[in-house]
Amino acid sequence: MSAASPQVAPPAARFRAAQRLLAENPAIALSFIFVALFVLTDIVNRAQSGKPFLTPTQLSTTFLYAAPLALLAAGQTLVMLTGGVDLSVATTATAGAFITSGTAHGQGTGTALLLALGLGFGIGLVNGIGVAIFRVNPLIMTLGLSSVTLGALTIYSQKRFVALVPNLVNTFGSGRFFKYVPYDLLVWAPIAALIILGLRYSGFGRMVYAVGDNPLACRLAGVRVWQVLLLVYALCGAFSALAGILLVGFNDAADLGIAAPFLLPSVAAVVIGGTSILGGSGGYGGTILGALILTVLDSLLTILNASAAVKQMLYGAIILALAWLYARTSTGD
Amino acid sequence: MTTAAAVAGKARGGQSVARLARRHGWTVGVYVLLLVLALYWRTIPAKWGSFDVQSLAIDALPLAFAAMAQSVAIISGGIDLSVGSLISLVNVVAAKYMVHMSLREALGFAALLLVGSAAAGAFTGTLIVLSRVPDIVVTLAMLFVWAGVALQVLQIPGGGAPLSYLQLGTGHWWSQWVPSGLVILLLGFALLWLPMRWSRPGLALYSVGSNRNAAYLSGVSVARTRIFAYALGGLFAGLAGLALTSTAGIGDPNAGQYYTLNSVAAAVLGGVSLVGGVGGLIGPIAAAFVVTLVKTMLILKGVDQNWAQVIQGTLIIVVVMIGGLAIRQRRRT
What we know:
heterodimer; A: mainly alpha; 2 strands; globular; B: mainly alpha; ABC transporter involved in vitamin B12 uptake, BtuC
């Protein structure tokens, strides 16, 4: 943080100051990348089919698609800030989707939504119990729970029930108002504000960072680390279920694979956004940009007719490259 | 060094019994568990014979190799989430090209694939060491890279292998009761792991996993050892992929998914602690058979396949939870 000094700083110092500004605020660089990608997609689209991509409609579609991913990444951000990772977000979202469509007819929309969110919270709670109380590696715990959830969902999906996606969910999942503003922004934006402000200004937010940075010091300082972890994983589960509700609203039907393509991108979005995998630093702002970048990237790859195989390879390579970059810049300081 | 101390310990008689019990108790326990399960297994079907033993060996062979691959990575202090995808990759490449080969050519090609998979493991290890990004992230990224490559090689299940090659995994040697797959497994263990385990690279592996700093200060080349660990893991993963080609007779780009989590479960169940530096490879082999046997028995008892997956997943979580508790107890005392 170079203080504004009255003298004119020499060019070398100003360049270093700019470099430091970029390194400490990844959001600036990420915004540039987002805009650049959008423009690139526009160019490619024009080259491929003559149609522009840089239109208000496409911009709104990008935000519409990015919302579920951003919600999944929101939970993932919280978990990664504590130094863990949650590989069950996709199956929890699928569970939310199934519960919404499965119980809406019998119990009404409100109850169905509450049940879905409650189930997500509960799954996250089980994750939290495993990680916080039994000290299971979060990777193993969440991976295991995700396979259990998937098995249970497969059984549930084979039962006969009246599958109904409520109109409200449909609107929020796929509708827009004022022609360009997606309804799911009404769900995403308040939660984004809640997370960003909560992480920065609330005691719990500070504890999340502290636990990720040095859990031992926290314990010695009297923080009940297990409570923080429990709540973080439970919130992640709830946010994932919410993403699943949006997805089923968009898809109009629940499907076992509805959220599977979002698992890796949720991790990627957090990594891109600058949150350290080891925990203790980062935030949701970068993740939002990460989610937007990945959505535009996905559109670009679709326009380029990239196969699912190429997309997967690319995601893996991107995560690797960015994690490497952030590791370099953080240890360099 | 340590070998001399071990010899001296055994010569001291009574005192070493307790140490032996502590060091090998878990492994013996897993074999006892396997025996108990096998005895119970005999009572389930109306007719039980060598065919069942062969089926079990066929089923468990790839998982046993996968467990060995994962164990090497965990003992060295890391984890390898890309084991499953690497298995898929080797499987599809083998199935795609072996279908028109003779046995001799197929074996030569298999050797080539083993070199390739070891190189892939070394590549992952090099990335981990150079980038200083945690192994979880790197191997998670490589999981998707290898999965993408596997999809690129073979989009849908297909391919095959010469009949005599299939016999290697599914046939029997000398007697109906000795599955050839089991022989290959034990040969692989004896030739690839045993001589190495007490040599310098093997001891370096254990020391790096046990206490990386102490190993570094003792002059062990930590970087080289870690790369070696992942390369060895890649070699075993290649063996698993070849075994899968032999037992399944076909290449499936998604076949390896099963082994990602189950290899970790088998390793932990086999006594390899997730903190590193603890355990051997003989326990995970038995644990792989235990995991496969549980699944077989559930199916024999007529449990629905999805319920079996739920039960298996829950068992894995419980096993890892108990392992986590054991670590906590050990740390307390």
